[in-house]
Amino acid sequence: MNEWMKKSPLEWQDYVYKEVRVTASEKNEYKGWVLTTDPVSANIVLVNFLEDGTVAVTGVMGHAVQTVETLNEDNQEVREKLMHMFMPEESKAYNPE
Amino acid sequence: KQAPIPIPVPVIRLPRGPDGTSRGFCAARGRDRAGSVAEVAEQQARAALRERYLRSILAMVGRPVHFTLHERVQVDAHFGATDLDVANFHVSQLQTPLGVQGEALLRCADIISYSFQL
């Protein structure tokens, strides 16, 4: 089991809404805003907002994670976007848009 | 002729469930078992993280997903489902370097990452 999988839910929670760089097995590298970490599998879900307006979602398997480095602290704009992502319709009603 | 209805005996003590490392009952009851503030906070964080994860999986259903596997193999497929402990991904139309597989089960141990677009 790697370091990442041994973290506690509160430690994983600290990464939510932050921009990170994840290095994984076989020199794979990923960058994005952390949406969540599955407490069962330790899979990290990263979100990237592309220039054409689409949103790319990447899941990195917990067993493959080697390092997770914070690049940017959370900001209000990204937090707003991530908070409503995938949430059911009712919670979207509170979205100012 | 009818036999008298027996008077129920009040239950004084319920049998204890298994304790220790098993997943059975805990000797302490609900409220007493609630634990310290730190434990509760940890459990809440765990639930919030898990809910967001399950919703992200739900959003992936029916979408084309790109997988990075070991040995630098890249495959595309339509995502179908995953099991609760996230041990397998069920996909359709898996495009492998050798050809298209109609239905396939990708073991998570073989996957490094997956990605999709909204």
From TrEMBL, chain B:
Gene3D superfamilies: 2.30.30.100. Residues 52-118 form the Sm domain. One of its GO terms (biological process) is spliceosomal snRNP assembly. InterPro entries: Sm, SMN_gemin7, SUZ-C. PROSITE patterns: SM (PS52002), SUZ_C (PS51938). Residues 1-29 form the SUZ-C domain. It comes from the Eukaryota. GO terms for molecular function: RNA binding. Pfam families: Gemin7 (PF11095), SUZ-C (PF12901). GO terms for cellular component: cytosol; Gemini of Cajal bodies; SMN complex. Coiled coil: none annotated. Transmembrane segments: none annotated. PANTHER family: GEM-ASSOCIATED PROTEIN 7. This is Gem nuclear organelle associated protein 7. It comes from Vombatus ursinus. The gene is GEMIN7.
